[in-house]
Amino acid sequence: MQESDDAPVIVLVRPQLGENIGKAARAMLNFGLAEMRLVEPRDGWPNPSAGPAASGADVVLEKAQVFSSVAEAVADCAHVYATTVRKRGVTKPVLTPEQAAREMAGSNRGRSAILFGPERSGLETDDVALARTIVTVPINPEFGSLNLAQAVILCAYEWSKTQTLVQPTAEDLLPPAPQDELEGLIVHFEELLESAGYFRPASRASATRRTLRGVLTKPGWNHLEIRTLRGVLSALGRKSEKSNSRNIR
User: Residue 186 CB: number of other CB atoms within 10 A?
Assistant: First the structure.
């Protein structure tokens, strides 16, 4: 993965648990961010608990840099964003993660950094004071507690929306099957239903056939789906024939 030149730096300020650092690294790499900076990690660095929690995002952990202060960690960054749900008495512009991501992506002002506070208490007032902008999310006022990885993934995801990333679950859909294959499926249904006495009373048979056609036409089956359904109908038909044969005996 080649990180964008204007990709923000993720700065974890006094993180407490190695597991949470690893989970934050995983969240970063999922959405195209790879530069992590740590300020005074409580349990030191490297931390053996971070690797397993990162679930393969080792490149982020291996490149992680450690600093003794927030000021040092963001010294080369032109714009600093502080994530907090409380403004803590500091008057600064307040953006959502989406707004902040658009601002960072559209800026030629140099590197940006996003600050995330320690798990227990979040960023302190002095940490927020170093930032030019506050980033916060609309959140339940009665429960505004996000864990560290959740906060990172919110910002990383919004950043990814400004970039060109591959959608891993996207796949090409097969086109609908030709009309003759669909007709074959409908006829197959009708033949089995006819033999089972489904189209009764006779006065309603035409309307019932039209309704059946409408149901089978609506999904836009592709040729593999029609082939599968025809196989199901054939299997059911054979089972019905065997049952009738035993009853005759």
Answer: 16
The β-bridge relationship of strands 9-13 and 112-116 is parallel
Q: Domain extents for the chain?
A: 9-160, 179-242
Residues in the chain, how many? 249
Helix segments in the chain, DSSP class H = 18-30, 50-54, 58-63, 70-73, 97-105, 125-129, 148-160, 179-195, 205-217, 223-248
Q: Which helix (H) or strand (E) holds 152?
A: helix 148-160
Q: Which pLDDT score, from 0 to 100, does residue 85 have?
A: 77
* pLDDT score at 248: 53
Phi, psi dihedrals of residue 12, rounded to the nearest 5°: -95, 115
Count of C-beta atoms within a 10 Å radius of residue 194: 13
Check if the beta carbon of residue 149 is closer than 8 Å to that of residue 28. no
Which architecture characterizes domain 9-160 according to CATH? 3-Layer(aba) Sandwich (3.40)
Are 64 and 97 within 8 A, CB to CB? no
Q: What is the pLDDT of residue 139?
A: 83
Residues 184-198 have pLDDT tens digits of 999 999 999 998 899
Burial class (CB in 10 A: 0-12, 13-18, 19+), 121: exposed
The list of the chain residues with pLDDT below 50 reads 1
Walk across the sheet containing 133-135 and list its strands: 65-67, 36-39, 9-13, 112-116, 79-83, 133-135, 94-95
